Amino acid sequence: MASKLSELQSAAAQASKYVAKNGPSYYKQLMEKNKRYIKNPPTIESCQLLAKQLFYTRLASIPSRYDAFWKELNSMKQVWNKRKEFKNEDYRIAALFGVGWVVECYAWFFLGEVVGRGFTFTGYYV
């Protein structure tokens, strides 16, 4: 256990040295590359103004998102009403998407469990 701790400490020291050496140049490069997104002067007031603009912009987008939701729901109702005209291929495609969705949900659950345990594989998954 002590050897792993010393290895971890040396790795952390190397990472710290790397960040100390390359961090400022990376920061300058990043800021130069994205300077069109920077609000000058960078004051608390300008940050508060941007936060308010973001909030009210998102608030203003609710009606269009509401309309898009009802449009999507109506298209799903039309598909449901035409279900008697479906062929076997249509059912197969729907089943394929359904199975894919279930597999994706399980994969996210599994990944969350692994991350929650500190990236260790134990228990039922072995």
UniProtKB/TrEMBL annotation:
Any one Gene Ontology cellular component term annotated for this protein: mitochondrial membrane
GO annotation, biological process: proton motive force-driven ATP synthesis
InterPro entries: ATP_synth_F0_gsu_mt
Locations listed in the record: Mitochondrion membrane
Main location: mitochondrion
Keywords: ATP synthesis, CF(0), Hydrogen ion transport, Ion transport, Membrane, Mitochondrion, Transmembrane, Transmembrane helix, Transport
Family of the protein in this entry: Belongs to the ATPase g subunit family.
Protein name as catalogued: Uncharacterized protein
The species this protein was found in: Daucus carota subsp. sativus
Organism placement in taxonomy: Eukaryota, Viridiplantae, Streptophyta, Embryophyta, Tracheophyta
